[in-house]
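Sample log: Flavodoxin-like fold domain-containing protein.
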Amino acid sequence: MKTLVIVAHPEIKESSTQLFLKEIAIKHEGITWLELNNASINNVEKNRSLLKENQRIIFQFPLLWYSAPGILFEWLRLNIKQTDDTWLAEKELGIVVNIGQAAKNYRIGASEQNSLSSLLSPLGSLANKLKMKLMPYFLIEKFEYLDEQKKKRLMIDYLQYLDLDQPISFEERQLWVISRLKKLVEVSKNDKLQLILNNVVEQKEKLDELKNEIKLIREAENNQY
């Protein structure tokens, strides 16, 4: 999967959230990181080339005044045409959005009175107009309050959102982790990483055996009737 991450943030160098995500994304093959600014939004030839080269397009931004930052819509105005559905069709569009408060506030009857789905619906309409496949949005809430363990979890979830088909099954998550660990072990020759890899593989094998046993039991029960 080749993924283009288009980052719209008015003060990106001051954003701990975007710096964290950037550090993760730029280290992995198949992911292109594009920060929007006055220069990049006007480089139409390069932008359209990137859109054609990548199968998954990600719009990434903080929610500002209940919408994406204006620079994203300016980039769309300059770089996308309605007739582009001829080659954008069947590409995937994902949305990574970070908010500074709890997600539970964004629903009918809560403090913000609107759901995130309704606030992000203009981008959903764009995907529909261009015949793109809209992925479920990826939400990051209150990043500044996350501890190290939660940041590690976010790192894995974020990379899998960029890399894996949606929706992601538990088995696909397991295989993804094993694949990543194998690459790290090959490069680093780290004994501790090898032990972690061995443990993950062992746990997956045990889970697969348990699933097979449950399947056989169910088949046996069904054959009794």
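Observation: The first strand starts at residue 3 and ends at 7.
Observation: Residues 24 and 155 are 7 Å apart (CA to CA).
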